[in-house]
Amino acid sequence: MSAHDTPQQIQHDAAEGLEQILHRKEPLKPKERMAIPMQKMPTQDPQIRRDNMQEVAMGYFPEQAKLESMRCLQCKTAPCVKGCPVGIDIPGFLAAAAEGDFQRSIGIIKQSSLLPQVCGRVCPQETQCQEHCTVGKSLKDVNQAVSIGRVERYVADWEREHGVQAPSVKAPTGKRVAVVGSGPASITVAADVRREGHEVTMFEAFHKPGGVLLYGIPEFRLPKAIVQKEVESLQAMGVEIKTNFVIGRTRKLLDLMKKDGYDAIFIGTGAGLPKFMNIEGENLVGVFSANEYLTRSNLMRAYDRERADTPIFKSKKVAVLGGGNVAMDSARTAVRLGADEVHLVYRRTEVEMPARVEEVAHAKEEGVIFHILENAKRIQGNEYGLVTGMECVRYELGEPDASGRRRPVEIPNSEFMIEVDTVIVAIGNESNPLIRQTTPGLDVNKWGNITVNDDGKTSLPGVFAGGDIVLGAATVILAMGEGRRAAASINQMLSTN
Amino acid sequence: MHKIILKKQLSADVYMLKVYAPLIAEERSPGQFIILQLDSDFGERIPLTIADADTEQGTITLIFQVVGKTTTRLAALNEGDAIANLVGPLGKPTHIEKFGHVVCVGGGIGVAPLHPIVQGMKKAGNRLTVIMGARNKELLILEDEMRALADELILCTDDGSYGRKGLVTAPLKELCEQTPPPDLAVAIGPPIMMKFCAETTRPYHVHTVVSLNTIMVDGTGMCGGCRVTVGDETKFVCVDGPEFDGHLVDFDNMMQRLKSYKTQEQEAPHPCKLNQQIENMNR
Ligand SMILES: Cc1cc2nc3c(=O)[nH]c(=O)nc-3n(C[C@H](O)[C@H](O)[C@H](O)COP(=O)(O)OP(=O)(O)OC[C@H]3O[C@@H](n4cnc5c(N)ncnc54)[C@H](O)[C@@H]3O)c2cc1C
Ligand code: SF4
Ligand code: FES
Fold first, then answer.
1. A146 C-beta closer than 6 A to ligand 2
2. What domains are there in chain B, each with its CATH number?
């Protein structure tokens, strides 16, 4: 494990580096830009953060934000923009940040993205914009690309600290739109539709709005105060939020139009149906879906054992199954809740892990033990039904499949036991069937995801959908992009009739 | 916020609340439940069955036993006070039709969720035998309401202080032995009671519906914390249930899962949390 760079050291180095550059009269040449060292993210010391819920990545210092932005070569073709699901003008906002004009920089981002504070923190940049970055390509290491996401986060945080104005809202149109769910897709639709002067009501099943940003992604990765601010900004625009309201149960979807007079509906209910392994012992005491474990800790605040009424399992040895962000979040939450050992078991290799690279690195720094090319076969329990162990089996990478990825195959007779008292299943989510079961005529595909056309329209007139309920478990930025698209067609529909 | 319109104490530690919740009152059907939470930040979410509803007043009736922190706080609320969070109706409604002769068995506070089902079964034209059991006379609830609906009412107490002395399974067995046996049994109460009711009816092939009240968090199928083993399958009580075929439910696994936090809570600062988790098993 590499030694932890202290924030002080990082800031000191950046200040020195910036000083040298600012003394020059000539503009930087591409070579010189590429010679600027990539700015490391200041983080909490791993030994300390193991015991707290505070954000791990502390954000760039201003000197770093400028230096990192100066690494951008301002490519004419801007390959990074093609990697961005919402097409942010990346060289544009980096140029402004390099000049220290953070106001203009965030303004450029906000033309295309509504949630930069969130996306700067949770986007898988290394497989989006940064994957295509010329700097990373020239240095032959995607991890040396311009840290676009970190600068995005910096300017977004800068704006919050300097006061954000609620977007202006046009004169009332008398039209009413119901937005179901309150995750990133729904937040985006609510904002974009409200801006045009339509009345917007958001319906959320839980007692607090925010979707996965609130109940899934932990505080140490995305502070809840940020999500809260986004929600408050919607309220400031006049969006009405009804919590404790399950569409399909408290009210049927189409009754929102028939009985309550809404002119359009957006469904952004996410992918909230946890997948299990379907292996022996999965209903033993001590086996949890990642959704349950994370919801108890995040939304119900069970990590605050003194104050919260909701209990969370006290574990000594934990196994987490999966290799995505959800698995990393579960493993790292278990570390913080005091587990002595946390094992992460993943069937493929680290290269295939869908989790953000940074989260994988952070998990390792925090002591999570990685088991790659292994999978759970059976969970063992005692006479009280408590988990005592898990039987695993080893895998190897076999022949490439149709997609070109080498398929993991089980190695015969390679079974072995690991001793654990807790198993957290984080192998993905499917779409929750509640709305489709209670809404006749709403078309879904074979995975149960709602099908939409290019404008985000569903098979029912006036009903739109987007985010994970359409894409399957995906990402915040894609949910936001889908929200944008659906909002545009809702606005268009409402303006023409 | 949901205002408490009426509060009544039904027995030493059982209370009835009528709560203003017009949308839930309008949409609910027998068998469905709500989840409530008294404090949005640190409160826990507990499921309670909707015992009755009044669409004109816009109220739902909740009946609960004081066993833990949340129910203690709930019992301390008075008429005019409000419940911060209330969501529902959740779960699938009871399958109600004219079956013929239906036996409804309620144990302890399980009589409360049984009440709307008895109402529904009656309305559908069934002949109803209701068996109610409790530890003693003092703990029997809704006797008058049930008497008004049942064609035959059998009361049992463990200590013989009222009605027959003994468990509800004895009269249930007698009914199963009659020819013809009942067409359907519905049993709601503590898990151990439901388990033995299912065992009682099994040899007679009397289809037996039980209503499970497991640990829950969201109540919408998102967390899987409420899952139970039914036959060879895993089911989520909050969306696939709460009612299941009692002959297929793995009650032992369910009871172990209800106690998930028990051993852990014993060493914890708030031992009462355990009760909150299992309070609903006694409803
Ligand atoms: C633990 C975890 C970590 C993740 N990490 C990342 C990451 O690092 N980067 C990234 O890009 N993505 C990440 N994701 C994925 C990302 O969070 C989702 O893709 C995104 O939140 C989807 O947004 P959405 O708006 O479609 O739905 P959601 O955020 O899922 O919100 C849906 C909302 O709808 C509500 N709802 C559901 N049904 C109903 C109903 N019937 N009536 C009313 N309300 C209802 C739900 O309660 C929920 O609040 C992560 C996901 C999880 C679970
Ligand atoms: S690809 Fe990289 S260097 Fe080129 S414009 Fe985008 S961020 Fe700048
Ligand atoms: S309570 Fe969460 S899935 Fe049933």
1. yes
2. 2-90 (2.40.30.10), 101-257 (3.40.50.80)
* Cα–Cα distance measured from residue B36 to residue A295, given in angstroms and rounded to the nearest whole number: 16
Q: DSSP code of A323? A: S
Report the Cα–Cα distance between both ends of chain B, in Å, rounded.
23
Q: Which residues pair with A202 in a beta bridge?
A: A179, A241
Give the up-direction half-sphere exposure of residue A405: CA atoms within 13 A in the CB hemisphere: 9
Of A164-168, A252-256, A326-330, B70-74, minimum mean pLDDT range: A164-168
B47 touching A (Cβ < 8 Å): no
Tokens of B60: 């739902």
CATH fold for domain A176-272+431-496: FAD/NAD(P)-binding domain (3.50.50)
Q: Residue B92's closest CA among B209, B256, B252? A: B209
Domains A7-162 and A275-428 share a fold: no
| pTM of the predicted model over 0.95 | no
| Residue range A275-428, CATH number | 3.50.50.60
Residue of A292, A429, A431 for testing the chain B interface, max B β-carbons within 10 Å: A292
Answer whether B35 contacts ligand 3 (Cβ < 6 A). Answer: no
What's the token pair of residue A67? 């230096």
Ligand 2 contacts CB of residue A267 (under 6 A): no
Among B44, B86, B250, the residue with its CB nearest the CB of A309 is B44
CB B257 less than 6 A from any atom of ligand 3: no
Distance from CA of A16 to the nearest CA of B (A): 45
- Mean pLDDT score, B85-111: 95
Asked whether the beta carbons of residue B87 and residue A246 sit closer than 8 angstroms, the reply is yes
Ligand nearest to the CA of A181: 1
- Residue B99 distance to chain A (closest CA, Å): 26
Decide: A232 and A162 in contact? Cβ < 8 Å.
no
- The answer as to CATH 1.10.1060.10 being correct for domain A7-162 is yes
Residue B272 has pLDDT above 50, yes or no: no
Mean pLDDT (chain A) is: 94
Domain ranges of chain A: 7-162, 176-272+431-496, 275-428
